[in-house]
Design goal:
It contains eleven helices and eleven strands. With about 300 residues, the protein is of the alpha/beta class. The protein has a seven-stranded mixed beta sheet, sandwiched between helices. A four-stranded parallel beta sheet has the order 3-2-1-4, with helices on both faces. The radius of gyration is 20 Å and the shape is elongated. The model has no long low-confidence stretch (mean pLDDT about 95).
């Protein structure tokens, strides 16, 4: 079970065969620097798509030989074309996985969802998981969905849980505990998220959501704090020990994740799940190190 990103790095270096990453709009200093970091550790090879003039200038400033990379020039500003080209190269097995550089997330996701050349797994739902290094408890924490699904209904949340569980299991959390987070820990018909949480817990108990233990409704405090759960007399087996936090909607998830990043300074990566191959989906607020960790975490999708 991985407890920190340094353990993931050690595993990837020793166990995962080197893969080729296509970086969409590679004329982005921090994304390119993260890919260069992985290249120097012999983890990946790089195909750089975008403004070749800027890419070459950035590589030179990093003292990185341009000859070590495949560089494909596309005029700056054509996000849609670059995203489609990048994803098509993965679809056609010219490269192993795509990475988002300096472009809108919507452009990148539209290419992934393209019915002809896209990468959505059959019957799946695309969702995002933030993987957080939870130093206080020496383990990882998985939070979904802070970036893609705006107002998921019960069926969407079921698939969001399944996606997050698949990722957690890749990281050694074999039967992860899933907390469906709501504003309070009792069912209130006036708060639909609490109703969904109760139904999701029942679905898990009926075997309709597998390989995990689902608890809910649970407020945030009694999802991750044993003391808070005891104080309120909550006996749910997930209470206080959740590995995965399922957010009610994008608003809750996005604000919570960014609060952890900017106020608590916690180290985290964003992972897009529900795809047929791993996808490295970074954000502009990510540091170079976080983007590098995002590469490592995505490469775990190639574990045997």
């Amino acid at each position: 079970m991985f407890r920190k990103f340094s353990e993931i790095e050690a595993y990837v270096i020793s166990h995962i065969t080197k893969k080729r990453v296509a970086l969409a709009n590679a004329h982005d200093e921090s994304s390119l620097a993260a890919l260069v970091m992985a290249k120097r550790k012999n983890i990946v090879d790089g195909t750089l798509i975008g403004d070749s003039k800027v890419i070459l200038e950035l590589l030179s400033a990093m003292n990185e030989p341009a000859s070590d990379y495949e560089i494909i020039h596309v005029d700056n500003g054509n996000d849609e074309a670059v995203a489609r080209m990048t994803v098509a190269m993965v679809h056609n097995k010219q490269v192993d996985l795509p990475m988002k550089g300096l472009m809108l997330n919507s452009s990148f996701l539209r290419a992934i969802l393209d019915k002809r050349n896209g990468l959505l797994a059959e019957g799946s739902l695309l969702s995002a998981v933030s993987v957080v290094e939870y130093v206080k408890e020496n383990r990882m924490l998985f939070i979904s969905d802070p970036a893609i699904n705006i107002s998921p209904d019960f069926n969407d949340k079921k698939r969001i849980i399944e996606n997050a569980v698949t990722l957690a299991r890749q990281m050694g959390y074999i039967t992860p505990k899933v907390a469906v987070v709501t504003p309070l820990e009792i069912v209130n018909p006036k708060i639909p998220s609490t109703v969904d949480a109760h139904k999701l817990k029942e679905a898990n108990q009926q075997g309709l959501i597998k390989d995990c233990i689902v608890g809910g409704p649970l407020a945030l405090d009694n999802s991750i704090s044993i003391e808070a759960a005891k104080h309120k007399g909550i006996t749910d087996p997930v209470a206080g020990v959740a590995d995965i936090l399922i957010m009610s909607d994008l608003n809750m998830g996005n604000v919570f994740v960014k609060s952890l990043l900017f106020f608590a300074k916690m180290t985290m990566v964003g992972v897009t799940v529900g795809t047929s191959v791993p996808v490295i989906n970074t954000t502009r607020s990510d540091t170079v190190l976080n983007k590098y960790y995002g590469i490592l975490t995505s490469l775990l999708g190639f574990k045997n």
